[in-house]
């Protein structure tokens, strides 16, 4: 029987070689210099990262920019709870960005503001960490990539969804060859955390998917299209008597974003919020579905197609974590402190532009579109 530490190290080793978003504590000794960070936006999502940042000894959170009095008060409560010095307060992000004492900013504003703020931050010589949406047009994405190249400052996507414990375990299984050659991934909202808001956008664990697909110069997204099919999905239903919420499997027409890679892998992304089509992995020798909690692994002793509970495998390949938000934040710190020559802006632009291309494909009746390569000069 393997010890817990030995099993953790084995599972971490299965994931780490191809991953740039794991915490620096697992990759390299942290730099003694604390990174000086400013927060632009301290709403619900911003405070989630602010709380994690305030407990990270590699960071010094010295400024926040927020126009809402309520959000600002809630943010300052986190500083007080952490025993932190009160930060410099701004209501204009341009003023915060002009502060020469800051090394980087975390942008946690509404998505339609990301591009303008990120562009201004890069011009001011700040590293940028942001939510999954970089811009609203292909041109805006190309511009952010260009600015990151020109300034030498990193643009990083904070993607806590890539650190779900079950997805990390399945990534370790893929790396261990348990699914054979990976053929397809189907990503929807997490079935245990289906978005309540109907006007939101679905979020995918894109950094983790990049790792699963082994995207590289030799294997990139090549095409995208929108299609509609009748499929199963999960919704949250409230019991009128007990008031408790439970998951219910339904069937209906689902809009899906379909991506192809150089090596022929297929990626299907849920295009609507408010329900979940689940996360599924399919390889030549196995498959997994998150919302049913089931897995199929080809076994020479039992060649028949038998699905079983995934729970034992999730335990076997579990990777100890400090929490999804903290891990995503550590990925940003690692990129900066280790002076990586890898530009995370390429992956950030690739993952963000999917929504832009999907909207265009939908306008064109589901036409297949060539996927842009951000690593080449535009």
TrEMBL record:
SUPFAM superfamilies: NAD(P)-binding Rossmann-fold domains
Pfam assignment, any one: Glyco_hydro_109_C
Signal peptide positions on this chain: none
Domain of life, per lineage: Bacteria
UniProt KW keywords: Glycosidase, Hydrolase, Oxidoreductase
GO molecular function: hydrolase activity, acting on glycosyl bonds; nucleotide binding; oxidoreductase activity
Residue ranges annotated for the Glycosyl hydrolase 109 C-terminal domain, each copy included: 197-309
Domain spans labelled Gfo/Idh/MocA-like oxidoreductase N-terminal: 35-156
InterPro entries: Gfo/Idh/MocA-like_OxRdtase_N (IPR000683), Gfo/Idh/MocA_oxidrdct_glycsds (IPR050463), Glyco_hydro_109_C (IPR049303), NAD(P)-bd_dom_sf (IPR036291)
Cofactor(s) required for function per UniProt: NAD(+)
Entry similarity comment: Belongs to the Gfo/Idh/MocA family. Glycosyl hydrolase 109 subfamily.
Protein name: Uncharacterized protein
